[in-house]
Each structure stands twice: as C-alpha cells, then as structure tokens.
Amino acid sequence: MPIPVSARHMLIASVAGAGAFMTAAAQPAQAELEVIASIKPLHSLVAGVMEGVDEPHLLVDGGESPHTYSLTPSEAARLERADLVVWIGRDLESFLDRPLDALVREDRVLRLDEVEGLRLLEARLGGGWEEHAHDHGHDHDHGHDDHAHDDHAHDDHGHDDHAHDEHAHDDHGHDDHGHDDHGHAHSKDMHLWLDPENAKVIVQAVAERMSGMDPDNAETYAANAASLQARIDEVDQEVAKMLGPVADRPYIVFHDAYQYFERHYGLNAVGSITVSPERQPGAQRLNEMRNRITEDGAVCVFREPQFTPALVETVTDGTPARTGVLDPLGADLQSGVNAYPQLLRNLAESLEACLSEAS
Fold first, then answer.
1. Nearby residues of 1 by Cβ (< 8 Å), 6 or more positions away
2. pLDDT above 70: residue 130
3. Strand segments (E) across the chain
4. How many other β-carbons are positioned within 10 Å of the β-carbon of residue 169?
5. What are phi and psi of 309, to 5 degrees?
6. CA atoms of 86 and 88, how far apart (whole Å)
7. What is the pTM of this model?
8. Closest CA to 110 of 222, 224, 212, 226
9. What single-letter DSSP state applies at residue 104?
10. CA atoms of 246 and 283, how far apart (whole Å)
C-alpha cells in the first residue's frame, strides 16, 4: 500500500533530522564567537588554537604597524561586541588602550604581557648596545630563569604611573642617543612573540581562555594547542640550525624589535637605527650607526617593509655593509595558522642570506 504524501514527507523529515543529529554528534559544536587578535603573529597562534571550530578576526594586517595604527569606527564596533580580544599590551598596540577600556569588559580581554610564564626582557636604550654586543650566549636550551612572571614587577603597566614616552605623540623630536630614550629605562620590550618559547606560552594561555568560554570545544582547543606547540618546536630547531653558522656576525636593525629572537638564537645584533619606528632618529644616531659598521664590523643593516628604506640607505652609503629586510610582523604573509611558523623561517632566511660570507 503506497504511503500517503503527507506521511512520506514526515518520514523524510524524521530521517533527515536523525542524520543531522548524528553528524552534529560526530563533530565539535560550532561556537559563534567573536575573537579578535591585534597583530598577525598573534592571530596565527589564536587561529591555530581555534582551528576546526571558528576563525579569529585580525586587526592590523598587511604592511601596517601597530606602533602607528589607527582604529576605524567599524573596528571599534567589532571590539564592543567581541567575546575575546587578544593583544600584547599598551606598550605595543597603544591604539587599543583607550578603546579596550571604554568598549570591552575586562574579562573579555587577554593581555599577554600579564600572562604567567612569559619571558619579558627589559627594553634597551637606542643606538649601540655595548653591554649586549658580545653577550649573545645561546638561550636555546630554554632554561630561562627570567621566564617566570614573578621575576619582574608589573607596577609599570598601571594606567596612572606608566612611562609611556615611546608611543606618545610628544614634542621630544629626534631620539638621538641620550635624553630622549628615558621612557624605556624601566619598561619591557613588547616584541615578545619572537621568542618561540613565549609563543608556546601564548598558545597555552589562549587555549585555556577559549576552553573557559566554550567548554563544549575544550578538548579541541587542548589538542590544537598541543599540536601547534609541537610544530613551533620543529620550526624552532630548523631555524636554530639555519642560523648557527652566522650567529656571531654583527649586524644592525632598523628598530629594536628583535631582542627576543636574538637572545633565543644567540645572534650578534650591535645596534638599532631607531628605538621606536615612529620617531625620526637624529644625525647623532645615524653617525653612531655608521661607526658601528666600521668599529664593530657590522656586515648588514636591515630595514623593514612597513617603513621607508631611506634611513638605512643613509647609514650604509659608502660603507661595505650589505642591506637586507627583516619583518617582525609578517606583512606579506597570508594570515592564518601557517603565518607564525613562516614568520620565524622568513626571519632566519633573511638573516642567513645577508650575514653569510657568500653574500
């Protein structure tokens, strides 16, 4: 006896519903979360933790710098509805400081310079780094006493007493060696993602925060974090092997963004053209860097894709130093899970190419 049309429709609907239920039961629950990461390296790490569940939104993309970025009205609106915002802190993404205070609840912000277990280094004064030039012991064994967050007081991160001279739009003018660098005397270097050990701590912190927000997918976040940390270890070993033969070659960078990378791989950077890229170095600083090429034998001076190469050309003109490009943010990389590992490789490849005797 044929099944009536109405009954047939009900049967099809019930079978389809059962199939949909079985499919949903076999996959992690889809979490509709608005997660925002400030810069591309952080976005990559967050995307790795969230892989298979959702995708985070990236604020500072392309060739833009967090030092000079301006938040758009649409991004401010996105911040206001965010479930989680991951950033380094006001010493790097100063453009986020006030908007986060005004628009986002504190429990929806993961500020990484306050995460336990991260290695935080003191910001260096600009120019030449006499105290560091020959102190580039390899930190690759990861036995860092200063990894523990307890080793550095965080009073300098408070809203009221923080020396914020580096990123303030003040009237100091040029950052010639000396008085203009005083804002760094008691602050931390915020380019902390360039230490792979820090990257693994960040991954763990993001996974724990995501699991608390979205317990249905906690197992996925934990598994993703473990997989990503293992991948970071693999790339770390690859980069260490690549840089070993050129680790003792002296070089100069455009701005002091690579201290974590230098310390981790035992490199021999001897100075930076400027402390902070939005502040024009004066003639004294440029002359000092030219002297570094002569006195320390700096074989390469690195520029950055986000900023004009004119200053690097001024420093190297008439000297035997080569020029190269280092990018701490991965401006040309496609955003996503693969960006952070590729960022480390790109830095290593650029350094190896310019510092190699065969160059």
1. none
2. no
3. 35-39, 57-60, 84-87, 109-111, 121-122, 127-128, 188-189, 250-255, 268-274, 300-303, 322-325
4. 8
5. -80, 0
6. 7
7. 0.77
8. 212
9. S
10. 30
